[in-house]
């Protein structure tokens, strides 16, 4: 739909009014003006609602995406909990078996310790007995030595008695026989005592070695007893640790089971919530689309009023933008005719990023030309009406090379959060504006376009505005558009 119009001069609107009285014509024009004004207010309200709905739809869509992602992550957590719960449950029988084995080992260790204690007691008693036997044998040796001395003395006495009997002759013959027997007995006793002493000496040696061995056995048995006691202590400690591990695993099993149940429950609830959010997101998008379409229809209706030269609150702004747009087209064509710039340079789409800028700014082959030709002209438009906020030319891709002076400050450095916010509001030249309003104005090829939108002024400040744009055509080729934004 094209909206061809002229400034409000004698036209069809006035010629059609010739059939009515002047009073009726004034009434009709007043009604049309008020209707257009109310339609304009309605457009503002719809634009505000559309913007709010769009923001809500965006957040709901984000929430839907986050919920979907959270649901996926919760499913993974549930599977992980299941993978934890299963091994934990399988670990309990192993721990119970290990605990039973350790308890059995503890019982065996207790019996071993008890047997070692008994063995140590027996070894020590044996060593004591052997020491006593050794002492007795030593005493026996002393007795034997005494007997041997007595036998020596008896033998000497028998020898003396034999001598005396020989001196006595026949009278001592009987005594000689007795002396001879005593001597023989003494010799036999000495022989027996010698053998007994040898046996006792051998036994004493064996017993001595046995005493030494028994002392070694006592020491070994004592060390073995300590080792056995240590082993039992270790087994007891291991039993305690395994019991603690079992308690921990039981607790972990209960926690894992409870966590798994909670995760499964949360997963179900989250899936239900995600489904509702997704449904709300779909409905909001439909509403957003419907409101946006209504906004477009209202804007078309406003344009229709203006196109038919009906006096509306927007008509002066439209006429001004058309006038300035034609001037800009003429300035560009003059620059081409004077070879100040070539057509490829004027239509350059190589947007070269400017380093260390945020928001990002760009350069093209025509920015110096637009600065030189357009800056003063665009600044003068700000004095047209106190409601005018900006006026700028953009190419067909939304690139704004030259802005009003108050929006064309050098960017502040360093790029802190505070400086970036200031740059966003005050450094709007050399930037690409590809939002819906900006790109629509840049690519519009109708005689004019009216849009109502909420403008981001930077620093969290937004302003409801109307945007009137006209195409800029150079040699029959669409270069972009001239935009004027004014407060409503």
UniProtKB/TrEMBL annotation:
**Where is the protein situated, by its record's location annotation?**
Membrane
Q: Which terms are listed as keywords in the entry?
A: Transducer
Q: What InterPro entries does the record tag this protein with?
A: MCPsignal_dom (IPR004089)
Query: At the top level of its lineage, which domain of life is listed?
Result: Bacteria
Task: Output the Gene Ontology cellular-component terms.
Answer: membrane
Q: Where is the Methyl-accepting transducer domain?
A: 38-274
**Does the record's keyword annotation contain NAD?**
no
In Pfam terms, one family for this protein is: MCPsignal
> Biological process GO annotation list?
chemotaxis; signal transduction
Q: What is its main location?
A: membrane
- Name-wise, this protein is Methyl-accepting chemotaxis protein
Organism annotation: Thiospirillum jenense
């Amino acid at each position: 739909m094209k909206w061809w119009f002229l400034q409000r001069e004698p036209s069809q609107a006035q010629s059609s009014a010739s059939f009515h009285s002047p009073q009726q014509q004034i009434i009709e024009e007043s009604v049309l003006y008020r209707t257009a004004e109310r339609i304009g207010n309605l457009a503002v309200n719809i634009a505000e609602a559309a913007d709010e709905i769009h923001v809500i739809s965006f957040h709901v869509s984000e929430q839907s995406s986050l919920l979907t992602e959270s649901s996926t992550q919760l499913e993974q957590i549930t599977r992980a909990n299941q993978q934890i719960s299963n091994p934990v449950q399988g670990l309990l029988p192993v721990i119970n078996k290990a605990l039973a084995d350790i308890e059995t080992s503890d019982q065996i260790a207790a019996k071993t310790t008890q047997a070692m204690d008994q063995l140590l007691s027996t070894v020590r008693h044996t060593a004591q007995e052997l020491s006593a036997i050794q002492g007795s044998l030593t005493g026996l040796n002393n007795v034997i030595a005494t007997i041997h001395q007595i036998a020596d003395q008896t033998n000497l006495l028998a020898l003396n008695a034999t001598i005396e009997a020989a001196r006595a002759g026949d009278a001592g013959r009987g005594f000689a026989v007795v002396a001879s027997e005593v001597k023989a007995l003494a010799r036999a006793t000495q022989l027996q005592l010698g053998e007994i002493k040898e046996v006792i000496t051998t036994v004493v040696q064996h017993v001595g070695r046995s005493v030494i061995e028994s002392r070694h056995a006592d020491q070994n048995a004592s060390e073995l007893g300590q080792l056995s006691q240590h082993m039992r202590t270790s087994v007891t400690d291991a039993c305690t640790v395994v019991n603690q591990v079992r308690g921990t695993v039981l607790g972990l099993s209960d926690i894992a089971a409870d966590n798994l149940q909670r995760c499964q429950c949360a997963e179900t609830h989250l899936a239900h919530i995600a489904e509702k959010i997704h449904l709300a997101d779909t409905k909001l998008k439909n509403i957003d689309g419907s409101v946006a379409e209504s906004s477009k229809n209202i804007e078309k209706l406003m344009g229709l009023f203006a196109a038919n030269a009906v006096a509306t609150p927007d008509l002066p702004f439209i006429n001004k933008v058309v006038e300035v747009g034609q001037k800009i087209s003429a300035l560009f064509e003059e620059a081409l005719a004077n070879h100040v710039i070539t057509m490829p340079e004027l239509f350059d789409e190589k947007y070269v990023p400017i380093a260390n800028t945020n928001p990002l700014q760009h350069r093209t082959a025509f920015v110096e030309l637009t600065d030189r030709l357009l800056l003063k002209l665009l600044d003068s438009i700000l004095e047209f009406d106190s409601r005018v906020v900006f006026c700028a030319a953009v190419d067909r891709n939304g690139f704004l090379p030259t802005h009003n002076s108050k929006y064309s400050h050098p960017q502040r450095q360093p790029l802190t959060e505070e400086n970036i916010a200031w740059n966003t509001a005050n450094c709007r030249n050399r930037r690409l504006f590809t939002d819906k309003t900006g790109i629509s104005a840049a690519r519009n090829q109708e005689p004019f376009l009216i849009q109502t939108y909420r403008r981001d002024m930077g620093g969290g400040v937004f302003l409801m505005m109307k945007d009137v744009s006209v195409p800029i055509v150079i040699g029959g080729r669409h270069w972009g558009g001239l935009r004027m934004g004014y407060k409503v």
